[in-house]
Amino acid sequence: MALGKGYEGQNCSLARALELVGERWTLLVVRDAFYGVRRYGAFLSHLDIPRAVLADRLNTLVDAGILQRHRYQESPPRDEYLLTERGTELWSVIYPLMRWGERHFATGEPLRTFRHATCGTELDPAGRCPACGQADVPPGDVESRPGPGIPAQPRQDPVSVALRQRPHRLLQPLL
């Protein structure tokens, strides 16, 4: 029996959420938006995603209210993409999923660490600050730092280079 293409017949909030964010590239686009990637070309080079797929994912995320499109240049027209409040809520899903992936599938140390910007303490796997006791540290208060797992031959796209160079507060422009 062939699998259906959607979850329309299911009265399930998880199924409806998966309709939006369950596609392979979507959470990677959202993750990069948390890192501060805002422009089409930066998403494209960092993710190695086909252009048509990226355009479709960005449009879907804008239509769903996860990202907002902001025109930064009129001629030729160029837009950047910023997380909305609805989009920033996904941090509580993406961060633990990244940590889970590191525990179960990583081949070495993490490429980056995440710290509470206020006190500098590394977040626990659930996104809490063990030093301050703050639960669910919001992404704007999280700093990404280069981790010990940078490979000997690291990627050279502008986003990867910027993420390796210095600590960076999430949601702030990276490039």
Q: What report would you give on this structure?
A:
This protein is an alpha+beta fold. It has two domains: 13-86, Orthogonal Bundle (Arc Repressor Mutant, subunit A), CATH 1.10.10.10; 89-169, no CATH class. Helix content is 38%, strand content 14%. The strands form two sheets. A three-stranded antiparallel sheet has the order 3-4-5. The chain starts with 12 loop residues before the first helix and ends in a 6-residue tail after the last strand. 23% of the residues are buried.
Number of E strands: 5
Poorly predicted sequence stretches spanning 5 or more consecutive residues: none
Label the structural class.
alpha+beta
Based on CA atoms alone, the radius of gyration comes out at: 17 Å
Topology:
Elements: H1 13-21, H2 26-35, H3 40-47, H4 51-63, E1 67-73, E2 78-83, H5 85-88, H6 91-105, E3 112-116, E4 142-146, H7 158-165, E5 168-169
Antiparallel strand pairs: 1-2, 3-4, 4-5
